[in-house]
From TrEMBL, chain A:
<comment type="function">
    <text>Carrier of the growing fatty acid chain in fatty acid biosynthesis.</text>
</comment>
<keyword id="KW-0276">Fatty acid metabolism</keyword>
<dbReference type="GO" id="GO:0031177">
    <property type="term" value="F:phosphopantetheine binding"/>
</dbReference>
<dbReference type="InterPro" id="IPR044813">
    <property type="entry name" value="ACP_chloroplastic"/>
</dbReference>
<dbReference type="GO" id="GO:0009507">
    <property type="term" value="C:chloroplast"/>
</dbReference>
<dbReference type="Pfam" id="PF00550">
    <property type="entry name" value="PP-binding"/>
</dbReference>
<dbReference type="InterPro" id="IPR009081">
    <property type="entry name" value="PP-bd_ACP"/>
</dbReference>
<dbReference type="InterPro" id="IPR020806">
    <property type="entry name" value="PKS_PP-bd"/>
</dbReference>
<dbReference type="InterPro" id="IPR006162">
    <property type="entry name" value="Ppantetheine_attach_site"/>
</dbReference>
From TrEMBL, chain B:
<keyword id="KW-0443">Lipid metabolism</keyword>
<comment type="subunit">
    <text>Homodimer.</text>
</comment>
<dbReference type="GO" id="GO:0006633">
    <property type="term" value="P:fatty acid biosynthetic process"/>
</dbReference>
<comment type="similarity">
    <text>Belongs to the fatty acid desaturase type 2 family.</text>
</comment>
<dbReference type="GO" id="GO:0046872">
    <property type="term" value="F:metal ion binding"/>
</dbReference>
<feature type="binding site">
    <location>
        <position position="256"/>
    </location>
    <ligand>
        <name>Fe cation 1</name>
    </ligand>
</feature>
<keyword id="KW-0560">Oxidoreductase</keyword>
<dbReference type="Pfam" id="PF03405">
    <property type="entry name" value="FA_desaturase_2"/>
</dbReference>
<dbReference type="InterPro" id="IPR012348">
    <property type="entry name" value="RNR-like"/>
</dbReference>
């Protein structure tokens, strides 16, 4: 299931990756290789969540990340994107988490907030918290 | 050059400092947390070490000239802020007089007053005293700075004269607090002394990179922080009925204020001469976060000593994340950062970053406060292992 989730996130984005190849070469190659690598190698820690996050959730997280980091709307931000690679410092990361709390009506504990380094992790955590609330 | 690179917002940090540990970060500083996140790979019962890459000599060599050219200015504007030794207070002015017949009586009075002061206050006062006693580290730090270091130990440049005299003034702080705490009978002096030995042994790297721009920005921030902190311990001492202790903390705070004036004056001059370089330096220091001088403190038992101490200091209102934001906001105003003109593109980005930072920090702090915190406490060896609410 995990690999399906990643590929469903991957494909819609790949076309925009190509569009941005010139301007965001570095970011493209990073996330591109990262994705390939990950789909070849199972990372149970990353996908241990029972239900992988819905694509809409991931997309919403990407939006919030873009806004926080003032990235252009077409910039390459995907589930695999690491906050740090996108230029987020520690302050940005906390503010991203705060943005997610507001957007999804959840409350994130300090300990959980510290473990989030990618869009996917954030989306998974959101799904977890929403499920707990329900 | 290293300074510019380290400022680039798109640089990949060498550590996962994307993680942040709530409001405590701004006092404890995330500089400490990387060691926590890397899974605390240090062996047990060893003092913490700086885990960031230690960068050196980031100031462009030609900029060292600036400080030479400021020698006369420094003599006329900075050295005048030093106090004549003959007019300076000494620890003896605030302690029982050993040569007097009334010594025993004075000590008894002191101990009686201290009995009324709660443990958590003492934990914070001890932490402050330990910080002051690590003075060798701070003199060292000043002497790592290019262009202003004391080359021989008795150099006659105004910068070197300042550094030695500043050290001499600060030296009285640790001495006074040490003697007071010793006489109080409320604290475990041996544990405190051990902590001091560990701390001086650990040193610290405030990430000033031998760069006097970074160095004086750092000290400006720190002097104001200690002014606020000692001012608060003075206020609390008064509330607990120990007017003598309040006086002590107050007189120390007054020194810190004078020192703050000196360091902020230097940076003001740097903004005047090299606004672009200075604003970049300020943004760099703020991105790296101002790490507290005693963040590597260790007492042989508690791996989270600094964090625990900071929590208590935060809870008591002695030094808080809000203070951190306030200090930054004060400095932004003091140096008129908003009004800087003629900046490069990078400089303008730095200016925006700095001016936008205080409200972001405040918002962060509000969020941290609103989180339901689990009541936790920790033992402190400084007070014989008694527990304090964090």
């Amino acid at each position: 299931m995990a690999s399906i989730a990643t590929s469903s996130v991957f494909f819609p984005v790949s076309s925009s990756l190509k569009q941005n190849q010139v301007s965001n070469l570095k970011m493209v190659s990073l996330s591109f290789t990262g994705k390939n690598f990950r789909s070849l190698r199972l990372q149970p820690s990353r996908f241990r969540v029972a239900c992988a996050a819905k694509p809409e959730t991931v997309e919403k997280v990407c939006e919030i990340v873009r806004k926080q980091l003032a990235l252009p709307a077409d910039s390459a931000v995907t589930g695999e994107s690491k906050f740090a690679s996108l230029g987020a410092d520690s302050l940005d990361t906390v503010e991203i988490v705060m943005g997610l709390e507001e957007e999804f009506g959840i409350s994130v504990e300090e300990e959980s907030a510290q473990t989030i380094t990618t869009v996917q992790e954030a989306a998974d955590m959101i799904e977890n918290l929403k499920a707990k609330k329900a | 050059m290293a300074l510019k690179l380290s400022f680039s917002p798109h640089k990949m940090p060498s550590f996962p400092d994307a993680r942040i540990r709530s409001h405590r970060v701004f006092m404890a500083s995330t500089i400490h947390s990387p060691s926590m996140e890397v899974g605390k790979v240090k062996k047990p019962f060893t003092p913490p070490r700086e885990t960031h890459v230690q960068v050196t000599h980031s100031l462009a060599p030609e900029k060292r000239e600036i400080f030479n050219s400021l020698n006369n200015w420094a003599e006329e504007n900075i050295l005048v802020l030093l106090k004549d030794v003959e007019k300076s207070w000494q620890p003896s002015d605030f302690l029982p007089e050993p040569a007097s017949e009334r010594f025993d009586e004075q000590v008894m009075e002191l101990r009686k007053r201290c009995k009324e002061i709660p443990d958590d206050y003492f934990v914070v006062l001890v932490g402050d005293m330990i910080t002051e006693e690590a003075l060798p580290t701070y003199q060292t730090m000043l002497n790592t700075l290019d262009g202003v270091r004391d080359e021989t130990g008795a150099s006659l440049t105004p910068w070197a004269i300042w550094t030695r005299a500043w050290t001499a003034e600060e030296n009285r702080h640790g001495d006074l607090l040490n003697k007071y705490l010793y006489l109080s009978g409320r604290v475990d002096m041996k544990q405190i002394e051990k902590t001091i030995q560990y701390l001086i042994g650990s040193g610290m790297d405030p990430r000033t990179e031998n760069n006097p721009y970074l160095g004086f920005i750092y000290t400006s921030f720190q002097e104001r922080a200690t002014f606020i902190s000692h001012g608060n311990t003075a206020r609390l001492a008064k509330e607990h009925g120990d007017l003598k202790l309040a006086q002590i903390c107050g007189i120390i705070a007054a020194d810190e204020k004078r020192h703050e004036t000196a360091y902020t004056k230097i940076v003001e001059k740097l903004f005047e001469i090299d606004p672009d370089g200075t604003v970049l330096a300020l943004a760099d220091m703020m991105r790296k976060k101002i790490s507290m001088p005693a963040h590597l403190m260790y007492d042989g038992q508690d791996d989270n000593l600094f964090e625990n101490f900071s929590s208590v200091a935060q809870r008591l209102g002695v030094y808080t994340a809000k203070d951190y934001a306030d200090i930054l906001e004060f400095l932004v105003g003091r140096w008129d950062v908003e009004k800087l003109t003629g900046l490069s593109g990078e400089g303008r980005k730095a200016q925006d970053y700095i001016c936008g930072l205080p409200p972001r920090i405040r918002r962060l702090e509000e969020r941290a406060q609103s989180k339901v915190k689990q009541a936790s406490s920790a033992p402190f060896s400084w007070i014989f292992g008694r527990e304090i609410k964090l």
